[in-house]
Amino acid sequence: MDRLQAMQVFTRVVDTNSFSRAADTLNLPRASVTTIIQNLEAFLNVRLLQRTTRRLNLTPDGAAYYERCVRILADIEETESSFATSAKGPRGKLRVDMPGAIGRMIVMPMMCDFHTRYPDVELMVGFGDKPVDLIQEGVDCVIRVGTLQDSSLVARRIGVFQGLTAASPQYLERHGVPETIEDLEQHTAVNYFSSRTGRIIDMDFVVDDKTIEVKMRGNIAVNDAEAYLSCGVKGAGLIQPPRFMALPYLQSGELIEVLPQWKPLPMPISAVYPHNRHLSQKVRVFVDWAAELFERCPLLSGQEDSEDRCLPTSTPSSTIVKRGTPEVAGTADVVA
C-alpha cells in the first residue's frame, strides 16, 4: 500500500465528504478510492469513517489521523517546493474560481502573460455567481469581493471594489435626478437578491463616514448580474454596479451617475484559499500575479480614475459583482 497516496485520498474524502467527489478531483476511479480507504483502515486497524446513506462522519481516531495527515502532506509539499529549481518553477493543475465580470474583463485578457511566466501550470478557471465550497469542490483558490469571516480560509487582499449609483437618461427624464438620500423614496430601483439566501440586497451609501442602507421599492428583482446591469441601462430603475463595470456605459452616456458625493461602501477584493493550500507554490504565484494585475488597474486598486487602462474599450456583456451576492461557502458578506 502506498501510504502517502492513502493519506492524500483519505484527506480528500474528508474534505469533499464524498468518495465520488474525491475520486473526481483526484482523477481516480471511485472503486479505487473505496479500496484505498478500506486498505488504510485495515493497515491501521481502526475505523476512520462512519458511513451513512447521507454523509460521512469521522470517528475520533479518524479525526486525529486527519489532522496529522494534513500536517504531513503540507510539510511534504513545502519541502518539495523548497527544492524546486527556479528553472522548473511551479507546475501542475491549478483550479481557480472568480466572478464572471472580473474574470472576463480583468483576468482572462492577461492570461497569456501568466502562461508565459508559468508555462507548466495548467489552469482550470471557473466563472459564475454561485457559491463555491473550496474544500468539497476541490478548488485551490478563488477571487472574491467582501470580508472573509470563515477561519478555515485564508484571504489576501489584492484590490478594492468601489460601486456607484446610476440610472439611464430615459429613467432620469421620467423620474428626475435624486439630489439627496431622502429623494430616493420617490424612486424605483432594480433590486438584486442573493442566490444563497433569497434576501433583497439594500442599496447602501457612505454619509459622514457612516454606512446607511436604503430599502428601495422596485418592480424587478434579479439574481443574475448581467440582467441587473441590462435592466438599469434599459431604464427600469436605479442600480449600484461596480465602477469598473459601469465605466464604458458612463462614457457612452447609456448610464449617468447620481448621488456621486455618497458612494457605496468600498469592499476588499481578495484571493481566498484553504489553509492547507498556503504552502503551494502554484497557488502562491497565481495570487502574486493576480495582486500585481489588480494593482495596475486604477479602478480596482482604490484609485479614482476616469479611465482604466486595464479595461477593454468595448461595452461589456459579462456579469456584475453586487454586494451580497453568493458567498464562498462558510463565509458571510463575501460576494462571488
Please describe the structure with a list of short key phrases separated by commas or semicolons.
single chain; 336 residues; alpha+beta; D-Maltodextrin-Binding Protein, domain 2; 2 domains; three-stranded mixed β-sheet; 10 helices; 15 strands; elongated; WH-like_DNA-bd_sf; LysR family transcriptional regulator
Structure, described:
This protein has 336 residues and is of the alpha+beta class. The chain has two domains: 3-82, Winged helix-like DNA-binding domain superfamily/Winged helix DNA-binding domain (Arc Repressor Mutant, subunit A, Orthogonal Bundle); 87-336, 3-Layer(aba) Sandwich (D-Maltodextrin-Binding Protein, domain 2). 35% of the residues lie in helices and 22% in strands. The strands form five sheets. Strands 3, 4, 5, 6, 14 and 15 form a six-stranded mixed sheet that branches. A hairpin with a 6-residue loop joins strand 8 and strand 9 (200-201). Helix 2 (19-26) crosses helix 3. Residues 313-321 and 323-336 have low confidence and may be disordered. Belongs to the LysR transcriptional regulatory family. Residues 303-336 are annotated as: Disordered. Keywords: DNA-binding, Transcription, Transcription regulation. One of its GO terms (biological process) is DNA-templated transcription.
